[in-house]
Write a structure and sequence with these properties.
The protein has helices at residues 12-23, 56-66, 89-117, 138-159, 178-181, 195-205, 214-225, 238-246; strands at residues 3-6, 27-32, 46-50, 71-74, 120-125, 163-170, 233-236. The protein is of the alpha/beta class. It has one domain: Rossmann fold (3-Layer(aba) Sandwich), CATH 3.40.50.720. A seven-stranded parallel sheet has the order 3-2-1-4-5-6-7, with helices on both faces.
């Protein structure tokens, strides 16, 4: 029976992914900064561990407690939108600490075991902002684009050891708490001078067309975990698939 460790399971994609793997009979190590039994209760084949991907000690503790990991799903992330001119560098660094360096640190922590077993999959969840340029998301996009380049290079060096690296690129999901995950970080990042540009875009966010659900992402993460081909990118959600097809980045 295989074991998957998933980061960021307190809501959205991570929670749905933990439930999907568990439903498929896997051992699941679901992690979140502050475990809550009312969100995801421990049980048979379901372990819930505390993990802060920006804290080296927390990473070491969680990986040691998890034991051998067959699939790592780097899902934990924070969001932010706003005019880059008004985005504090402290916020940009915070985005990179979780969305980029957290992914790298978790990956580095599990690779010795995967390499020695010559088996394993690292799945990094990014975003459809990597598929096409989108306004008011410069810093966030940069943090996710870095993961795309990291994963593409990583896939080449890990393939020698029988370990695979994959990207899952979710589309726009208004029900996945992107804004709430931003907390107070987004206050003041759209100054008045940007309002004539930003307001129509923000209004469109509230009335999207095709959107991505947490279950869409969970399905694609499970697909990527079981994919033995050299496919690197897996768009998730109808809108992300359409973007990937139009930009020729399905592989």
């Amino acid at each position: 029976m295989r074991t998957v460790l998933i980061t960021g399971c307190s809501s959205g994609y991570g929670l749905a992914t933990a439930r999907r793997f568990h439903g498929e009979g896997w051992n699941v190590v679901a992690t979140m900064r502050r475990p809550r039994a009312d969100v995801l209760a421990p049980g048979e084949r379901m372990r819930v561990l505390a993990l802060d991907v920006t804290d080296p000690a927390s990473i070491a503790s969680a990986v040691a407690a998890a034991g051998p990991i067959d699939v790592l799903v780097n899902n934990a992330g924070i969001g932010a939108i706003g005019a880059f001119e008004a985005t504090p560098m402290t916020l940009t660094r915070e985005l990179f600490e979780t969305n980029t360096f957290g992914v790298m640190a978790m990956t580095q922590a599990v690779l010795p075991g995967m390499r020695s077993r010559r088996s394993g999959v690292v799945i990094n969840v990014t975003s459809s902002v990597t598929l096409t340029a989108m306004p008011l998301a410069a810093a966030y996009t940069a943090s996710k684009m870095a993961v795309e380049g990291f994963t593409a290079s990583l896939a080449l060096e890990l393939g020698f050891f029988g370990v695979r690296a994959k990207l899952v690129e979710p589309g726009y999901g208004p029900s996945t708490n992107f804004a709430s995950n931003g907390g107070g970080r987004m206050e003041g990042v759209i100054p008045d001078v940007y309002r004539p540009f930003a307001d129509p875009i923000l209004a469109a966010f509230g009335e999207p067309g095709a959107v991505t659900t947490a279950e869409d992402v969970a399905d694609v993460v499970f697909l990527a975990a079981n994919d033995s081909s050299e496919q690197l990118r897996f768009p998730a959600g109808a809108d992300a698939v359409a973007l990937a097809q139009s930009h020729g980045v399905m592989a």
